[in-house]
UniProtKB/TrEMBL annotation:
<dbReference type="Pfam" id="PF02604">
    <property type="entry name" value="PhdYeFM_antitox"/>
</dbReference>
<comment type="function">
    <text>Antitoxin component of a type II toxin-antitoxin (TA) system.</text>
</comment>
<dbReference type="InterPro" id="IPR036165">
    <property type="entry name" value="YefM-like_sf"/>
</dbReference>
<dbReference type="InterPro" id="IPR006442">
    <property type="entry name" value="Antitoxin_Phd/YefM"/>
</dbReference>
<comment type="similarity">
    <text>Belongs to the phD/YefM antitoxin family.</text>
</comment>
<protein>
    <recommendedName>
        <fullName>Antitoxin</fullName>
    </recommendedName>
</protein>
């Protein structure tokens, strides 16, 4: 994990750089030379806070119904057991 430090000015000038750096680890944002904020990816934030989505919450996500899903039919049939 790489920790990147950016000043508030650097963040304002190149937010894309900060986002790319956040993929590698936390980005510490300084204000007048002192750490003031930390930028994390949402996945890192969830891991840090222990927040996990339930299956019901995941299925209720907006836009999920727009994803085409055609699961194959299961070929389940009954058989007569051989009891000999």
């Amino acid at each position: 994990m790489t920790i990147t430090t950016l000043s508030s000015r650097e963040l304002n000038q190149d937010i894309g750089r900060a986002k790319r750096a956040a993929l590698q680890g936390p980005v510490v944002i300084t204000d007048r030379g002192r750490p003031a904020h930390v930028l994390l990816t949402f996945a890192q934030y969830q891991r840090l806070t222990g927040q996990q989505r339930s299956l019901a919450e995941a299925l209720a996500m907006p836009g999920l119904s727009d994803i085409p899903l055609e699961p194959p039919r299961a070929g389940i049939s009954s058989r007569v057991p051989d009891l000999s």
